[in-house]
Design brief:
Blueprint lengths: L2 H8 L12 H25 L2 H4 L16 H30 L4 H5 L4 H24 L3 H6 L2 H24 L1 H16 L7 H19 L2 H25 L6 H33 L4 H7 L5 H9 L1 H20 L4 H10 L26 H21 L4 H9 L7 H9 L23 H18 L7 H17 L10 H18 L25
Helix pairs in contact: 2-4, 4-10, 4-11, 6-8, 6-9, 8-9, 8-10, 8-11, 8-12, 9-10, 10-11, 11-12, 14-15, 15-16, 15-20, 15-22, 16-18, 16-20, 17-18, 17-19, 20-21, 21-22
Length: 534
């Protein structure tokens, strides 16, 4: 992503009730920030307070009575401008972080908030302890002369950025910002800490965590790592040139900081993320991408044992993905949940109509026994999901996509076959155990599953558009009247939007087929013959 676009994404977007302002307006925001930074830098220099606020070891051996140097003044102005600009950007990023609603992973993984935050804080304390032990073995004079101060600052800040980025990918930017605040407070209570190290995590941290979300994926992590390292280097470089001419050691150290951050960020993410996901049952964008692979062992087994149910799941996934996109939900999560929602059917595939090729086995069973067999596929699906270590969110979609709905076919069949009025079966005997959908994704999955099955049952491809709309309306109305959407956060306007998407998607996926010349459908004869027929 070009630098201008990255910076534009970091800054808050001016939004009206319907449309975004043009990109040119957002570019003016960037130039305005730059102007504010220059003005504040001039004010800061004129007040003469900068050197007392940000002490540096590079001034330790300098005389305080040196005459003013024009080159040093230019360096001070440039360094102050850089620091002020990044501070303003970080402030606006933090404002946007707390104003934006939580993303889906922040909601999904929220119950693991305390373990991850406390574990991250403990890891940072361990890093500080190791650094203090290593540096404590040197004398104060050796520490100053060998530039341990600058190296230590880089290691501390890079570790904060790396840990904060992982928290961002798992829990969102709000939790990462809280970690940056905690790390700054920890540094503040250490007697040997410099003042700037209390502030720098609050500047570099929010910017780096936003970059981790703007540039996802393996290549994106390399780019975000390079940009995070660049931000770190610019911070330290701005701090150095604002009070002294940068030394060769400073330039080398900042170059190493960029390279280290670029390499460490993807490595740490690739090592830590799978471990955290598997051990705590977390969900991330990377794990969803892995589960989208149809060669997943569980999906491969599903396609072999229950091909009809497998293709039904693929059709539901297409409908659910389009529906999730229409209301701003995670499309990957919707598709993955649809892939695995019926995996329990592979235990007894011959008892589900989409897998039957000869006769219906339920004709040999009582309605109550048939309902028990069908209900049991939910329990079996949960067991398979746990066996293959699926994320908890994906497993929860298996029971929730049925909710507590009634198997109307077998209920009617049981009531029709009851000769004794006193033995009328109860509706509760033919209900799924639940729970009802708790999230928008599982609610979408319930509706998509019901609509896809109903569409095939009534042969939507042969029906008129008005008939198709009527069938979808009836199906959704039945789900709503049964109270299946009472526990999920779907709004009335979102349900109306979903209804339009379901109608359009179903008509597109189950469209009519043209009868090819020479093809004989059941009950249809064709008088057309190919030219070379005898």
């Amino acid at each position: 992503m070009p630098p201008k676009k990255v910076l534009a994404e970091l800054l808050p977007i001016h939004k009206s009730s319907h449309t975004f302002l043009p990109k040119s307006r957002r570019r003016w925001d960037i130039w305005l920030l730059a102007g504010i930074s220059l003005v504040l830098a001039l004010v800061r220099i004129n007040l003469g307070l900068f050197s007392s606020t940000f002490p540096s070891t590079s001034l330790k051996n300098q005389s305080s009575a040196m005459p003013p140097d024009p080159i040093a003044s230019i360096h001070m102005f440039l360094g102050t401008s850089l620091l002020t600009f990044l501070a303003i950007v970080a402030t606006m990023v933090m404002y946007r972080t707390f104003m934006d609603p939580p993303n889906e992973f922040e909601r999904i993984n929220q119950k693991h908030f305390l373990p991850i935050l406390m574990g991250s804080t403990l890891l940072f304390l361990i890093i500080l302890s190791v650094l203090s032990i290593l540096i404590g073995q040197e004398s104060p004079e050796a520490i100053l002369t060998s530039h341990h101060f600058l190296v230590t600052q880089n290691i501390e800040l890079i570790s904060i950025i790396l840990i904060g980025n992982i928290i961002t990918l798992l829990l969102g930017k709000k939790s990462a910002t809280l970690f940056f605040l905690i790390s700054s407070m920890i540094i503040a209570v250490i007697p040997s800490s410099q003042y700037e190290m209390v502030i720098l995590p609050l500047i570099a941290g929010p910017i780096s965590s936003s970059l981790a979300l703007i540039l996802p994926g393996r290549i994106g992590s390399l780019k975000s790592g390079a940009l995070s390292g660049l931000v770190t280097a610019v911070l330290f470089l701005g701090m150095e040139i604002s009070i002294a001419n940068p030394t060769l050691f400073t330039l080398k150290t900042e170059s190493i900081a960029i390279i280290a951050t670029t390499l460490l960020l993807p490595m740490l993410e690739n090592v830590a993320m799978p471990l955290l996901e598997k051990s705590l049952g977390l969900l991330s964008e990377a794990s969803l991408t892995e589960l989208l692979d149809l060669n997943h062992p569980l999906l491969h087994e599903f396609s072999q044992k229950a091909p009809g149910s497998f293709f039904h799941s693929l059709a539901v996934a297409q409908i659910a993905e389009a529906a999730a996109l229409s209301i701003g939900e995670n499309t990957k999560l919707a598709r993955v949940s649809a892939y695995f929602h019926d995996i329990g059917k592979m235990d007894k595939p011959q008892y589900f109509i989409e897998n039957q090729t000869t006769f219906n086995r339920h004709e040999l069973l009582t309605p109550r026994m048939s309902s028990l067999i069908l209900i049991d596929h939910v329990r079996k699906g949960i067991e398979l999901g746990k066996k293959y270590a699926l994320p908890e969110t994906i497993i929860s979609a298996i029971p929730e996509h049925h909710g507590t709905r009634v198997m109307q076919y077998f209920l009617r069949k049981s009531r029709d076959g009851s000769n004794n009025p006193g033995d009328i079966p109860s509706e509760s005997d033919f209900r799924y155990p639940g729970p009802k959908p708790q999230t928008k994704i599982t609610a979408i999955l319930m509706m998509a599953d019901a609509i896809e099955a109903t569409g095939r049952a009534v042969k939507i491809q042969d029906a008129s558009p008005a008939r198709a709309i009527s069938v979808i309306d009836e199906t959704l109305l039945e789900i709503q009247k049964d109270g299946q959407l009472d526990e999920c956060p779907l709004t009335i306007s979102e349900i109306a939007t979903l209804k339009e998407v379901f109608t359009r998607t179903l008509l597109q996926t189950q469209h009519k087929r043209i009868a090819y010349p020479g093809a004989k459908a059941p009950g249809i004869t064709s008088s057309w013959k190919p030219k070379d027929a005898s």
